């Protein structure tokens, strides 16, 4: 072997490996098992796992563990039902950068009353994971499902039973094409983030039926052609940048709580003017201020117009949108 190849071998970094925790079994091409960590062990980090399967009850006995992280594994393919079952102190689960993970069984996340944060990102799964048996009691539970390009549908009742308090859903960058009727039924939503789902075209008119909220709705960089007319009453912040397919908004009366909006077309803001003076209340009259933003918004070089409007409760005057703005 020549000198240069030998030098390259010496300088080339060795393959990244992780040491399987002493209390776990991580047999290559086998199933993970972590039956008992002992008292005081609070974080389990499993990176570059060689195993193919996380079976039922894989973490049984980890009563003190607060965080479980599974990441950077090219071998992991399946998580079976009850893989994360009755871990009563567990607060965070992170499953990230496991592109060959194609299956998460129904009920994989079961009876996790203190779970605050579940992140499932950059995997190969083809269906939205079942989170309906988590039964978290934590306020503002955060579910992050992102960069899973093979998930095409958010089905009905997908989050019912996830938690019994408020929740933030960060569902961005996936392969979603459709959100079905009653998808968010049974939830109390602080924020619903659907941005960067670039194939998302259809959100059923009853997708938000049965839900309370959301207070914040972000549909930026999607192909949604319409918003549901039901369930927008609680929306205080609407974000719809780079939403070029959204040519028409629901009737302005649906946005009775809206305080702030970031929109794509000037004509979006024009939808909120010319309210009848009779029957106006304070929550409806705030829409008059949108027209001021219509007049002052400049068109960007790429013909996208971004409207960012914070709507105060004072100095409300009615102005007509200028004729040169897009008419939809």
Automatic annotation (TrEMBL):
GO biological process: adenylate cyclase-activating G protein-coupled receptor signaling pathway; hormone-mediated signaling pathway; male gonad development; ovarian follicle development; ovulation cycle process; phospholipase C-activating G protein-coupled receptor signaling pathway
InterPro entries: LRR_5, LRR_dom_sf, LSH_rcpt
GO molecular function: G protein-coupled peptide receptor activity; luteinizing hormone receptor activity
Domain of life: Eukaryota
Membrane topology of the entry: Multi-pass membrane protein
Keyword Acyltransferase: no
Keywords attached to this entry: Cell membrane, Disulfide bond, G-protein coupled receptor, Leucine-rich repeat, Membrane, Receptor, Signal, Transducer
GO cellular component: plasma membrane
Subcellular locations according to the entry: Cell membrane
Signal peptide: 1-18
One Pfam family of this chain: LRR_5
Protein name: Lutropin-choriogonadotropic hormone receptor isoform X5
Species the sequence originates in: Phascolarctos cinereus (Koala)
